[in-house]
Every structure is written in structure tokens, then in C-alpha cells.
Automatic annotation (TrEMBL):
Oxidoreductase found in the keyword field: no
Designated name of the protein: Prolyl oligopeptidase family serine peptidase
A Pfam family this chain is assigned to: Peptidase_S9
InterPro entries (UniProt xref): 6-blade_b-propeller_TolB-like (IPR011042), AB_hydrolase_fold (IPR029058), Peptidase_S9_cat (IPR001375)
Keywords associated with the record: Hydrolase, Signal
Region (Disordered): 320-374
Keyword Lipoprotein: no
Cleavable signal peptide: 1-20
Comp. bias regions, Basic and acidic residues: 320-330, 365-374
Record domain Peptidase S9 prolyl oligopeptidase catalytic: where: 775-944
Lineage, broadest ranks: Bacteria, Pseudomonadati, Bacteroidota, Sphingobacteriia, Sphingobacteriales
Native source species: Sphingobacterium oryzagri
Annotated SUPFAM superfamilies: alpha/beta-Hydrolases, DPP6 N-terminal domain-like
Amino acid sequence: MKHKFSTVLLSVLAFTGAYAQENKTPLKWQDIPGWSYFRTTATAISPDGKWIAYQAGPTQGDLTLTLKNTENTTAFNYKIGGEGSSVLYNEDGRYLAFLEAPDFKTIKSNEKAKKPSSKKLRVVSLKDTASTVFDKVQQFDFSKENGKWLAIRFESAPGPKNEQAGKGNDLLLYNLDNKQKFNLGNVSDYAFNKSGEFIAYTVDATGKNGNGIFLLNLQTGLTSVIQNDDASFSKINWNKEGTAFSLLKSKENKDYKTPIYTLIGVKNLQAKAPEVHSYSGLQAQQISAGYGISENTVPFWSKDLSTIFFGIAKIEKKEDKKDDSKEKSPDVQVDSLASTAKTKSPIDSAASRKDSTDTKIAATDPKKNAQQKKDLEKPDMIIWNWQDKRLQSSQRVQLESDKRFTILSAWQVAADKFVSLSDSSLKAIYLAPNQLIGYGLDFTPYEYISNLDGQSYADLYIVDVKTGNRKLAIEKLYLNASRTLRFSPTSTHLLYYSDGDFQILDVKTLAKTNISKNIPASFVDMFDDHNVTKPSTGTYGWAEDGRYVLLKDNFDLWKVSFDGKSVTKLTNDWAKQQWTSTSYSNIYPDDENIDLSKDQYFGILNIATKQTGIALLPAKSNKMEVLKMDDVYTSSVKKVKKANTLFYTTQSSTIAPELFISHDNRLKTATKLLSDSNKHVLSAGSKLISYVSDHGDTLQAVLYLPANYEEGKSYPTITYIYERLTDNKNTYSQPAFPGGGFNRAMYTSNGYAVLMPDIKYKMNDPGMSAVACVVPAVKAAVATGIVDEKNVAIHGHSWGGYQTSFLITQTDIFKAAVAGAPLTNMISMYSLIYWNTGSANQSIFESSQGRFTSGYWDNWDAYARNSPIFHIKKVKTPLIILHNDKDGAVDYTQGIEYFNGLRRLNKPVVMLTYNGENHGLRKEVNQKDYAVRMMEYFDHYLKGKDAPDWWAKGIDYIDLSKHLEERAF
């Protein structure tokens, strides 16, 4: 199953100070800029779990950071301006640091003037909340485990810079214990090691004076000059243990067109002089001719510090100067050409002689010859060839990523040996934990056909890191079903999925063991209805000891030994209760695998009721315990680093996410730490409806009730569609201007019910499947008495837009419709380009959302049967089409074709095009405009309000500017 659950600790926690008491007043779109909410990405809990910092404020306005004690009501507020900040605690939780921006109006003014907005850094002592503030800060970091130091990198000095100007800025090292400050000048890159004992930094000064890589021992204060050079140094990368680091050096070279990169590795840091190793591969000519160390690589040490891994790429030499005296003179050729001009007029002959003379001069003048070559006009074109593995458009879109492609390589330091691990066919190597072997996927034998039909295969090779030798382990592995490929912690085995079962590959003998064949359950996802053969249900990977893997079927969770001989069901027949695990809560971020000697937490879902909760697999236990299962949406569990304190959030359709804290492993003492202070009612709740599709499948739909709901009354209803939506029944909808125009909270706040049904697809019938599922869902919702049968509309965007545009050709139950970026002609759309990636749509049709089994030439009836454009005469529902002229997902011509067809038939249709926008709306002004127009339109048809002029009679192009100006807010 594909249940998408957020792993963010704090989801959107909405509140607004404008509504102190419960309020059912409908929200207006003009209220959105002032609607206040918690900023989720910057919420942070201290390592000891005693403090939480969260940011809140209006959608457009100034924010406040609140620092709250988790054990009492103590709280402190800080004004942080018109932009959210990252929030960091030092390792022992004694200090908090965050940025303070200018106010919102100043930031917007600076953006228009293309000026930067300087920020301040505030450092707060959690012991007494005393603050220290630094101006014009660009970046900040605490030292790692010791937590004694704060590194602050300041902004560049204002004013123009010349080519010789360095990229470095001042870096301040601030001692949190004694408040001492140490300034390092012209620092361009820096990084603390794990213990916080060392900081490595690079200097990039004007004219490269004093450039180099330096290592400062923060305990002794001694600085080691690792290397000085007239060069640039970058990409410092410490190993996990913090005992060694690597980086790159780039320097101009007279023989090459671009700077040459050198690898630098540093270890034995405690020695009087750290051990430094440099390698370019050019002097010894170890790296293949024409290749060098790539600027796009981030080098890293092997775990045993014997090898440095890095990437190589093509480098181009400067052209050798040719000896002009050895070139053959073209005089004879020119004379012979001149002699053929006997029949020309004297003027023509003179012109020919002049051209011949110029040609002679150019031929003997290399500079002029080169200039003439530059001056030649060349066609501006693209050549598309049927044999191209990737379309020219795809190559063009992916050009930059292709340029950044690097071949993973290894330098064995002691032996001074270079080994290339990947190449143009085996592009990526995934190293095993011991870093002595890796696996790579070769797509090249199947790349051409895969780019046509989307069915992805690859040959899997096991690669020896020491020699670069590779062995074919699995031929033609089908990757659409699953890309689960995980080395065991022991590096001896590889877990993968094939043909409905999980397999274990012995990487030494290449023997394969089917570890799920004897388990009485199916590992094929019963809810995946794409054109994919036996899609996998998924796995949570290896246990830390390498003896077991955790597999999930559609309901239950299994612990299976790597040889398949031991199978333990961890769940108690969840299939009977329709429960399933949806996520694994990784509360130990330092663990690379699942340590079964520790408590482990999982997110769970009741498929039948949409209740969610948390399950615990206790340490050294083989039985999952369900700790919570409620009619709410529950987040993953999080744990602070230095305490046995757990956090999670819950939310529902009526209650914004609330944060809970617990100090016991079974969450029995969980208490609410943060809750929504907003009393504005956006919805009266949600109702789960069961119905039977026209294909005979029992499905579900969620009906969200309007804020002013009264039992016994019927309400105008918006049917919102995509694919399967009911698993998110208990999510809270935050009022906002969305990129797709529709916001559930705004509609339920304004007296609408919102219906979201599940759609189950039959192959070769995507549109007809939508009809078979959506129409019965609407009828079932009407039967509840909540939905006003005469006032039901439909809306969807992208794939939902396609289904919307198709549904109105098959049914008249909808009074109005809005189709955002819809596919309308499946035949023409099939071979058009998905411009955002440059790929053809063919693979999407044959292996993804399209759900067709072939191209239209072998399936004409199905393509035509499911294309809105071929049923256009049957449309009776008024329709708005949103289609932007730069849509890189669904070609703009799809909207144009449908609009012009409906217009030709004199059917009520308006198309909205936001110039320069892609598949969804990014510009805030456009988001506002579309959202408002959509509600105006639905209000007219479902609530009987006056039709807006732009719908009722249209707006002439000459009057459009005035119209838009009058509507701006």
C-alpha cells in the first residue's frame, strides 16, 4: 500500500488571534494573509527534551518565535521578522540559536529592489534566557558533541567585487563557556568534526593570497596549516567518526581549459603534524586519458581510512598550436577555381578574384581563418533520431545533470592505486557497509524500450572495490515492482524483490534464496492498480545484527531470517482487523538499521475506519503492541537524543495538530504540550461513506461537513477527485492560497460540504473507472441527506483534471465543473512531451497513471473511449479549464483543444491561462486570483449568487488590464 504519512514532528498548527472564542463566521479570501499558523519546518526540541521552540505568525507578516519549557508554563517570545529561521540547540541543550530577519514589508521591498535582507543571530542561554546578538550573519553552526563552540560566518562586505576578489568572509568562533571570540578571516568553507575538538576551514582571499586548508584544535588553540597554494579549496567532508576529513583543491593549469582538481585527505589528527595525502591522478596517469577528478564530487574516506572515494569526469585539454609552415598552401586550388569563371561578366570575375585573394590571405593567416569560422552562421536546430535512447528533449532538460555526472572511483592511499568502480553503463555504485563491495545497476540493455513504455529493468552487478572487477548477479531485474535493494549490515547478503517474493542474494556465491515463499501471505500490493506486474508491499529493511529482515504484507509484519528458515509474525492477525503498518519511526538516527534490542515504533492504519495510531515492538520482543488507535491522524514518533522523552502529534478534520509528550515507552503518560488556540470552526467534522462501484468493488469516500452544519439540512457540495484519498480522512486543512486553486478549509468554512471518493481503476479504462467510482460515491453521499443533490460540483487538477473533464461527458449529475490542467485527448497526449523532464508521455500511459497496456495503435477503442474530446457533444455541465501556457506536465494544447471544441459547440466554458506558469501556480498573485474566481463560479451555480462578469459575458482583451487591476487585493 502507498500510505503517505508525514515524518515531520510538528505538522501545521494553526491559530489566529483574531478569533478568541469559537467562531463560525465564514472566512473570506482576504483573511488568508492575516491567518496565523505555526511554521513546522523550524520547530525544534532541545536534546534533553526540556525546551521546545516554535514559530508562528500570519501568512504575510511578522513572526514570533516562542521558547517554551516542556515541564511547566514558562515561555519566552522573540520577534524574528518576516521570515522563518532555522533553529539549533547545542549538543548539551544549554544554548539555542536562531536568526532574526527584517520585518515583512522591508523584505518585500528589498526583493523588489533586488537587495539582500541582512539578518541577526540571537544566541539564548537556556539557563537564564540571557541573549547575545550578532549582526549581518550568513551562516551558523554549533560544534558537535562537546557543544562549546558556535561558528558564525558573516555576510560579505557590500559593494562591487572584481575578478580577483576572494569568496571568503569573516568566521567568528564564539566560546559559549567563557564568551571569548576568535575571528578567522576570508573563510569560504568550514566544518566541525563529530567530537567538536577540531574545526577544518578553508581560506579564499583576494588574489588567492594565503589560500589554503587549515585545522584548528579547539582544545589547544593550535592551528595546523594543512596546505597552502595559489588555488581554491572546497567541500570539506569529515568521516562519521570525526577522525579524518577530505576535500578538493582546484587550480588553473596551462594545459587544460578548466581548473584541475586535486583530492586532499587528512588523518592522524592527534599527531604533531597531521598526515596529508594529495592526489590528482594526472602525474602518474593513473586515471584514464581525458578524465580527471570531478568538481562535482564530494570525496569521503573509507571506514578503515585506507581509501578515499571520489568521482571523476571528462576534462578537456587546450588545443595544441599547429605549425602553419607545414600546412599545404591552397593557392593551386584557388587558381583553378578562378580559371573556371571565364563565362562570367567582368564584375563577377573581379568579385571572384577578390574572394580568391581573401581566401588566400585567410588560409595563411590563422587568426583571420579562425575568425571566419566563428563568423559562419550555423543552423539553430535539433536532430531527433529514432535510435536515440533518450529523446533529444530529455537530453536537453537533463544536460546539466549529465554534465555533473561523475564516475565513482577509489584511491587506495598506501598502494597509490586508482580503481574506477563505475562507468557510462554502470553509472552508480552503492557501497556495502564494509565498503569492500558494492552493487551497480546497468540499465543500458533496456534503456531504449524503458523510455518508451516505462517498464524499467536493469542487470545487477556486484563490484569488487579493491579491483573494480564486477560479476553479473541478477539479469533483467524488474524495478517497477520494487526498488528495494539493501545490503545486510554484515555486507554478506543483499535483499531484493522479484516476481512477488523477497529474495536474498549471497554476494560471494551469487546464490539466491526466496525467503517469503513459505509465508502464508501475499507480498503483492493489493491496492496498486497501475500497469505494473506484482508490485511490492514493501519492507523496513534489515535488523542491526544482519540475521533478520522485516517484511510487510498488505496487513501483517514479519521477522524473517536471511536464510528463510525462521519466520515470525510480529502482528496479531491484523488482516482480520484490517490494520496495516504504514511507517517506521526511526527514533535512533545514529542506527543504520533496525536494532531489535531497542524499542521500535511504527505508524498504523485501520483501512476500514481510517483510524490511525502507534504500535510498539518492545526491545527483544516478537509481538507488536498497539499503543494508540483513534479517529485521528497520528504522526511518527520522535525521540530526543539525551532523554527517554517521546513526541508525536495528532490532528483531525476539525482540530489542528496537537503535540504530545511522553516520558514512558508505552505513551501512557502522554500529555498535551501544544494545542491549537484557534477557535474558528472550519468544519463540523468528517464522515466516512461506504459504497459499491459500478464495477462491483466496495469502496469508500470521505464527506467533510460544512462549518455551519445542522443535522437534517442539505448543503451544496464540491466533489474533489484524484485517486485514493480516504486514508487522509483525519487530516486538518489549513486555509491558504493553493497552487491548484482548491482549499478544503475555505469551502467548508463557507457552507460547502466536500466529498473525496476513492477510485479503483481497471486496466485500459481510466476515465470509465472514474465514472464507475465517482458517480456511485456522489449518490451514496446524497443518500446521507447531507449533500444537496441539485447542487453538486466537481473539481480536480492534473490527473484529477482529466477525470473531471471526462466525467462531465458521461454524467449530468454535476451542476458545474472546474478542470485544472486536464488531459483531454489520450491519443494525441500519448506521444506529446512531458516538458518538465523532456520525456515522452508514453511511459506514463503504459506503466503509470494512464493504466493502458499498449500504445493507441493496438488499443484504439480504449484510448478513444477514455478521451474526453471524443465525447464532447454530450457535455452539458458548465466548465472552467485552467491551463497555463508553460505547463510542462500536461501540454497546453490539451486545454486549448477541449476549450475550442466546447466553444465550437456553443457550450458554456471559460479557460483561464496564467502566462508563464507551469503545471501549478507558483506566483502568489495568481494563486489568489484563481482561488477567488473558482469560488465565485461555484457560488453562482451552487448558491445562486450573481455570475461574475468574466464568466457571464467575458472580458475583451483590451479591457483585461483594467479588469485585473480592479480585482487585485
